[in-house]
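Table S7 (text form). Paired inputs.
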Amino acid sequence: MLLACVQTGIRFSDVPGNLQCVMNWIDRAGKSGADLVVMPECMLSGYAFGSRQDALPHAVPIGDPLFEQIAEKTAEWGLHVTLGYLEVDGDRLFNAAALVGPSGVIGRYRKVHLPHLGIDRFVDRGDFPYQVHEAVTQSGEICRIGLAICYDSSFPEPIRVLALDGADVIALGTNWPNGAAHTAEVVPPARSMENHLYFVAANRVGEENGFGFCGCSSICGPDGVVLAKTGSDGEMMLLAEVDLALARNKRIERAPGGAHVIHRFDDRRPEFYGKLSGSNE
């Protein structure tokens, strides 16, 4: 299948303008034959809000008609897209991501790990467990997609949970600021290596209320191989042809005849990891 990673600017507090930007990128990705398009965090709203009250008018519920518009556009090309938005649910506000395809919204996630930065200072902590969602590619293959947002990737546990649940691809929308360029360089290949899967990190570019964003988007493959990455902080789309079977085969034979074999999952020893779950054992 063909993965597309969109690195783009975002119009602050302009949902209609950003929705049109999403549509334009879907058209561009569709013309390239992409099966899955990954877009940045807070793609519909912008990120650098100064208060919860300032952000609320630019938040939408998951049932908003704009998701139907996005679904209709994906149906034109037979692809799926992930994108970030601010979600309002009653009196709650979340930094969220949605997986949208021709049949509508087939996956969603609310950001669990919240840094003291931008809108994350004012949203509610995500309350959904990490889940893997299935999307059918244009060739009829099932792709298992895990959603995460920005700071989530700085913790190994969320990506490992998604990998153990069968994720082939991690779709990470992010708003890494200029000070996080090293994170953008190190984390995607590390997480893809640790879990032997594909990792798409779509960052934004431009400036917003005093924040500058570094770009540095990338697509990494099993064993941490960098398949594509941006060479600038300009707007662009990365493409990578991938084989999902490679992500599903966790057994890596590095020498002929089985002289050097590792298995990222079978070689784990959870009985020694008690502290990760709060246990003292």
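Next pair, protein 2 of 2.
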Amino acid sequence: MIDVKNLHPLEVKLLRHISKDEDVYAERIEKELGYKTGQCNQAFSWLSAKECLSEHSRKTYTWYELTDMGREWAENGTPLIRIFNLLKEGKHLSIKDICERLSLEQKDAGSAFGYLSKNGISAMDEEKKAFLVKNELPKDAEDTWNLIKKGLEKPLSDEELSDEEKKIIPSIAKKRGAVGSPYKTVEREVVIFRLTDTGEEVKKAVLAANITGEEIGVVTPEILSSGSWKTSVFRPYGLDAPVSRLTPGRHNPYGNYIRWVKDKLTSLGFEEFDGPLVENEFWNGDALFMPQFHSARDIHDVYYIKNPSHCKEIEEPWLSRVEKAHMDGGDTGSRGWEYKFDREFTRRQVLRSQGTVLSAHQLTKCKKPGKYFGVVRCFRYDEVDATHGADFYQTEGIVIGKEANLKDLLGLLKMFATEIAGATDYKYVPGYFPFTEPSIEIHIKHPVLGWFELGGSGIFRPEVTKSLGVDEPVLAWGLGIDRMALMNLGLSDIRELFTPNIESVRTRRG
């Protein structure tokens, strides 16, 4: 039988407050007992371990909350609505003029005008100025704006959306990296507990012993000076509690894991590369055939460097060759992206958002055939959760050779999933990246988190390789080594890899 005198006050108050067959969940206890979320979780965990509470059910709720950009759109109109209203005045304006008048980013204005043009609502005259063809917006544009305005009142629950709104919301809401989206998607799991028979017996014992949870556990100067200790009830002290143990120094388990990965790849004949944390837009995106001012860059929400904001110059002949590939394909056999390449934009400095930037550098100086890898720290604006961080490590690599093919790439991905991550279940999933074709993602199944993506891979497009001086096939991958470590080290939250909790580091295997 549990010694009720050793129960924590959080447990005592909770037991006294609830009854058999009642739903017990965090929101209720926070409201009725004034617990904080962490206190609820502690009480639930402790009482569950003592078999006083048992999980009854759980449900995941999805909510949509406006971002700062979404609030601005809700109050002033979406870029599409604002451009339409501006052109309704009968003016012919260039995209640059539209951006200046409405304080819009060029990519937002271009995307909105593309929609209007595609739907026959606006067009360009001979001077490349936009004008209105039809004086009526499609219903879906109005519906999208109405749905964004609806979020000003309160976060939207997935359950309260209409069927029509449920069709629209996926296009304007993102789970992570939502800074460039009007809505961010938030998933909340509610776990409902019930008092067990054991819990009912413990509750009776607590009531019989007249334990309230208000007993004093710490003697403070205020208690001594006021004399309130004379009439107070104290929690019992465990005089037989074990003394603190001695703990020797040890290596960080995640540091050990990264060194082990490097040793394994080196033993397979790979050469390691590395580079600076600060890069420019040229190597971070342009050299990888990611078009400037295009939605493809939305997957990489970068951190910009304030001072100096731009590098002095980009190396030649790579700048001219990449510029040519973007504008008309150059000598790559492609039509390119068919837009005017911005040499000012390409010098802008950022914290690198992907390890592939180092692969691009390596192409200009690689041996053929050759195998290269790096363990690279990257920075990308993201919502931090169990599998995402705002800064993270990737293992990045390329294989160059005339005989390199998709089958070789699949074999490498399998090795990362099974040997380096230690997963027993894995699968290949088709993907899209502007710089590879075909593109493949590798997913593994975690015993707690379920299926999640390790990263992307593919065969570099000729627009990438030929522009950087390589005529042979190049296999490329960029995988989250943090996520592989979750599986290998038996963890279920990526934040545990970087925890300041020294006790966690002392007891973790690896």
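The two ends are 38 Å apart (CA to CA).
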